Amino acid sequence: MDTMTEPNHLTHLDADGRARMIDVGHKAETSRVAVARGRFITTAEVIDLVRADNLPKADVLATARIAGISAAKKTSELIPLCHQVPLSSVSVDFEFGEDSIDIEASARTHGQTGVEMEALTAVTIAGLTLHDMVKAVDPAATLTDVRLESKSGGKRGHWHRTDEAGAADIAAAVGAVEAEAPGESRSAPGGHTARVIVASTQGAAGLRADTTGPVIAAWLSGHGYETAPVSVVADADIAGALADAVLGQPTVIITTGGTGVSSTDATPEATAAVLDRELPGVAELLRRRGVESTPTAALSRGLAGTAGRTVIINLPGSTGGVRDGLSVLDDLLDHLVDQVSGTAQHVSSRLGSVRA
């Protein structure tokens, strides 16, 4: 997303007030990720029909997902002043409410400009496709609250929406210049950032409420970490979600779920693929604390370690396991982050093979 270079100067207008495409040729190429959300509001009866795949037009969510991904790839054709962006990945996910479907889209690239518009376009077209699929039974359905939730990359580093975002934050965005130098830090100014990823196939499908992600996010916020919206992904998608999160270079990534011995549990393998260094003592301490209350905690294969300057920790998927894990991190995380932040490391090149 291109911003203003100075107050009252719109970058998409030239000196004569004519529309123009911004020249980004001077910018360094960096990894950029954007996440957008929207809400499709209908009726509880329609939600039941969608869940059961019982509408006249079948495969509602699958069709909307494909439409959103296709739209993201055509953003520069739909929005005249957007650059053509070589997208490396696009994902569209849905979460059921009582009478609504939340839509979340994530777009990623390695280039000279951001992918906010691609993520927003994916959400919008996915939502319009949902409307097309249900209009026969609910012509009054509404697509609303389409907005950017977070972005990583560029001069401003990691940004995420908060309910308290006010005039000061908007002014900072307006005054920011996207031109950046190679090697520039992408950490949030003046503070640490965090990501929470929930590995739950049923949660990602909207069949089970996420009870662990919000607890971790609240705990991180209480410890002073700027925390992006919780990501809930299917177990099969955890590798991609984790790789995307690492590319944003947050200070901390905490995952929950997928650490057991089930055939679908893949969080430790996904974590191992992005780690530069493991911290086996941390993982063992987490297991030991869990065993004190739940003997089956010994079955957890969760890892801990670092990817560049990012600390990554796997917690179990149960609320009790999360509670025990956070009690360990209460005494440990800040010291660990201070140590890691003082070392000059780079994100492992193995990320390329994970997302190839």
Task: Please give a structural write-up.
With 356 residues, the chain is of the alpha/beta class. The chain contains 13 helices and twelve strands. It has helices at residues 44-51, 60-73, 75-78, 116-134, 167-175, 201-204, 213-222, 238-247, 267-274, 280-293, 319-330, 333-341, 351-355; strands at residues 30-41, 87-96, 100-111, 142-152, 159-160, 192-199, 225-227, 231-233, 252-256, 277-278, 304-307, 310-315. Strands 6, 7, 8, 9, 10, 11 and 12 form a seven-stranded mixed beta sheet that branches. It has a five-stranded antiparallel beta sheet with strand order 2-3-1-4-5, sandwiched between helices. Helix 2 packs antiparallel against helix 4. It is globular and about 55 Å long. The protein starts with 29 loop residues before the first strand and ends with a helix. Residues 1-9, 163-190 and 343-356 have low confidence and may be disordered.
